[in-house]
Amino acid sequence: MENSSNIAAQPVRSFRVDIPQADVEDLRDRLARTRWNTGVQGVGDWSRGVPADYLKELATYWADGFDWRKAEARLNDFPQYVTEIDGQDIHFAHVRSDRPDATPLLLIHDWPGSFVQFVDVIEPLSRDFHVVVTSTPGVGFSGPLTSPGWNTGRIARAFTELMERLGYDRYGVQGNGGGAWTAGEMGRIAPDRVIGIHVNGLVTFPSEDPADFAGLTESEQARLERLQHFRDDKMGFNVIQSTRPDTVAYGLNDSPAGQLAWIVEKFKEWTDTAKELPEDAVDRDTLLTNVSVYWFTGTAGSSAHLYYEVAHDPAAWAPKERGTVPTAVAVALSSDVAVRRFAERDHNVVRWTEFDRGGNFLSLEQPELLTEDVREFFADLG
Question: Structural domain tally of the chain?
Fold first, then answer.
């Protein structure tokens, strides 16, 4: 990690999303030439992956109905920048509040999300916060990766450096899924700077102590069963990306239909279970904007390497001291797996909110709920 004395040598550069038209046309051409998998006759649901009929329809819309230039213009509504930290470009949006006393707030996305994940909450949050939205190293406009070793700790240190570079000595952090892990690590690295951590999509694990299971509520037992089902039936993507990220990347980087299937499956499985299709939970154009960012930046492979780094990082699985930074946990009851007693074992949980709608991508599924919960949490911190 670079010394803080080198900050001035690494400028913050303005950035605009500007995908060459040739790349847009190439995407459409590749989608038109997709060699489709027919699947197994008689199986039309999601039990074996993304159904062919559904994916064909979505890919057709991506090629012929989706307006990338409109999506690009929306992204460029937010001031964006790039700066180099620890040898890696870090892309971020930075929207300052009109309030002079606003609290700086860093937002960290999950995989397979991107900074697109926060487009619906940036403006409302900026009424009370100076909002910084990062692209995780290796993802989107922060990628591809330039070196190995980008594990959770290294990413957390880079984001801590970013906030220092922006002149923020005290700030809050919000993260979901994998971003929640990074947020927690930032609190351990810089507890004197991080004033509060808000997370959703948090994953908690029981220990081997049988006492962990005593007195669990019916809802908590259901969340543990959901976690077990995930580990039994929905971990294929994780195993592949944690062990052979380069091998799967060849197909994802060459086939937009493959990249679309790889991502849209997660939006099906990790959004509100009451919704039949991914676009019932998340706006279809926003979903395709997110997939397009992965496609145009060619970061399927480097984002997969993030799983490899965590899986092969001894520090990721070693016992850690309980976090001391005040932490708020937002739980979507339909899809999340977090259990409060396990969260409190690892974090200084001072707020616990349960929502009866939404899923892992709460900032896209229920942006008003997330915005209000974040606002109330940091207001309570004083």
Answer: 1
H or E segment to which residue 89 belongs = strand 88-95
Q: If pLDDT is split at 50, 70 and 90, which confidence band does 364 have?
A: very high
Are 162 and 133 in contact, with CB atoms under 8 Å apart?
Answer: no
**Rounded alpha-carbon distances, angstroms, from residue 164 to 93, 182, 190, 342, 347:** 15, 17, 11, 31, 24
**Residue matched to tokens 């145009």:** 296
Q: Is the dihedral of CA 296, 271, 109, 232 positive or negative?
A: negative
Q: Extract the tokens encoding 373.
A: 């919960």
As a whole-number percent, the residues of the chain with pLDDT over 90 amount to: 93
Give the count of beta carbons closer than 10 Å to the beta carbon of residue 2: 15
Residue 78: domain span? 4-381
Nearest CA to 112 out of 275, 233, 231, 282 is that of: 282
Pairing of strands 88-95, 129-134: antiparallel
Residue whose token pair is 């000595």: 169
pLDDT at 324 over 70: yes
The tokens describing 346, both together, are: 């690892």
Tokens 């942006």 belong to residue: 367
Mention every residue, 6+ apart, whose C-beta is less than 8 A from residue 322. Answer: 345, 346, 347, 348
pLDDT of residue 6: 40
- Determine the pLDDT at residue 38: 81
The domain that holds 85 is classified in CATH as: 3.40.50.1820
d(CA 323, CA 184): 7
